[in-house]
Design goal:
Strand content: 5-15%
Order of helices and strands: HHHHHEEEHEHEHHH
Shape: elongated
Strand order of the largest sheet: 3-2-1-4-5
Helix content: 40-55%
Amino acid sequence: MAELLLPLVESLRVTIRRSAPRLAHERAKTTIKQRGQRPRLKEQSIRDYVKEGLQTNHWSPEQIAGTLPQKILGTTVSHEAIYQYIYSQYTRGGYGVLVGENLRIYLKRKHKVRKRKEVHFKVEKGAIKDRVLIDQRPVVVDLRVESGHWEGDSVVSKKSKVGLNTIVERVSGLVKISKIVNRTSRETQRVITKRLQRVPSYLRKTMTLDNGSENAKHKEITKQLNMPIYFAHPYHSWERGCNENTNGLIRYYFPKGTDFATISNEEIQTIERRLNNRPRKRLDYKTPQQVFNHCVALKH
């Protein structure tokens, strides 16, 4: 009996060996076809909130994840799950067919695939007379436990002499964005002084700038605002990390190559309000405006 079954068993083994690659190929095709169709976020209410946060509020996945429990009580989701949901809309590692709605366009960096950020350092030019380096800045500024310390920078374009001046309060992250019709030191001085004169004097303690020639009139700014100014070391943009990160957010709305001469003051004010009313993870998902207003209120 065993002798009769042996040929049958061997035949079955051959059939299985021959069909295995074909079956594996079919499974792979099915997996690729279904990729992006399997919901990473199972609840429709969560998916709706994610889309609203991305499309309407221009929030990041971290901000959406941080505020979700306040919107839908008892519900939590990680920002990583939101990223997976967004990037799963593309098959074959991000370079295949788009399945469903393309949500990547609402991310600050609209890559098809997730990749490491390449850091390009800006060349600092211009000699600044009588500058005081960041080494002499009070240690309390580094700790971010005291409000009223600012960082300043410029956002420029090769297409125009018109640019943006940005100043950011280190504790709250509140940003003030102003158009500068030319990138001269006198215009920069005028803009910074005008914006910070409206800030209570007890919230004008220090400012840290880069070594660009537009900051050459720092002594005049100090005299007008009674606020000492310090300079980061050349090529050390991370010493003004709060400002650099904020400028990255601004670039989402005004990409490189933007001709700022064509951007109205109203548009700039709209972006300023939007950034100041975005919940931040490091602020326990409060907004910079809320935190800054609280700092003002503490003195009253």
